[in-house]
Amino acid sequence: MAKVIVACGSGVATSQTVASKVDKLLKERKVSAEVEAVDIKSINTFIKSADVYVAITKPKEKYDIPVIDGIAFLTGMGQEEELQKIIDAIS
């Protein structure tokens, strides 16, 4: 199963909100994936087993997996485009 990680500064409020929304949207489209909120300080550990990284803040590093704009899931602006990027990456 594909794994999507969502990270914000603390791994609590914002990342949990976005992870829940991404999970719901993927399920609505019948796309199977594990979506997990993580602490940004632990990103290098979690990134190793992830297929997609949804970033709430702009990453300072480059990663070997797709990095998606998580703000789109908070505001709704550009959400469909970012969701499609996730689906394309894990399909």
SS class: alpha/beta
Rounded to the nearest angstrom, the radius of gyration is 12 Å
Shape: globular
Estimated helix fraction? 40-55%
Distance between the termini: 10 Å
Mean pLDDT: 94
Beta-strand content bin: 15-25%
Sheet with the most strands: spatial strand order: 2-1-3-4
Count of helical stretches: 4
The H/E string reads EHEHEEHH
List keywords for this structure.
91 residues; alpha/beta; 4-stranded parallel β-sheet; 4 helices; globular
Please provide a written account of the structure.
The protein has four helices and four strands; from the N terminus they run βαβαββαα. It has helices spanning 13-28, 43-46, 71-75, 79-90; strands at 2-8, 33-39, 52-55, 67-69. 41% of the residues lie in helices and 23% in strands. The protein is an alpha/beta fold and 91 residues long. It is globular, with a radius of gyration of 12 Å. The chain has a four-stranded parallel β-sheet with strand order 2-1-3-4.
